[in-house]
Design a protein that fits this description.
Radius of gyration: 14 Å
Helix content: over 70%
Order of helices and strands: HHHHHHH
Structural class: mainly alpha
Number of helices: 7
Shape: globular
Largest sheet: none
Distance between the termini: 39 Å
Low-confidence stretches: none
Length: about 120
């Protein structure tokens, strides 16, 4: 199994597909790694960019990877809107989450997306 650290390391060329996406990346694993980076005084933008790059790679075969792409957009929206806090992070996060809604067919992921959208829309 690919670890979160293997995936997010700056010089890593690890690419996730299939079940590796779900086994390696979860909200908790991403937030835990974010915490590690901050404790070490390292920049956490790598999380955003690695997830987004993985989406771009999976989109090359969109139909085959549809649910994984939707799941990654959900994670990216959650992370960007709730924790990463770039300028306009709430709007960026909502955009990714709404995109995920249109892509995934996974009921569990759809439910998480809707919950996250409700939370973000409640933020000032």
């Amino acid at each position: 199994m690919i670890t979160v650290k293997d995936f997010f390391t700056y010089d890593s060329d690890v690419f996730l597909s299939g079940t590796d996406v779900y086994e390696t990346l979860t909200v908790d694993s991403i937030l835990n790694f974010d915490t590690e980076l901050r404790k070490e005084g390292q920049e956490d933008s790598i999380i955003y960019f690695k997830i987004y790059y993985n989406i771009l790679c999976l989109e090359k075969d969109f139909d085959k990877n549809k649910n994984e792409i939707g799941y990654l957009y959900y994670l990216l929206g959650y992370y960007t809107g709730m924790f990463y806090h770039p300028a306009n992070g709430k709007d960026i996060g909502l955009s990714f989450l709404k995109k995920a809604l249109t892509i995934t067919n996974d009921d569990a992921v759809l439910e998480e997306i809707l919950v996250t959208i409700t939370m973000l829309e409640g933020y000032p």
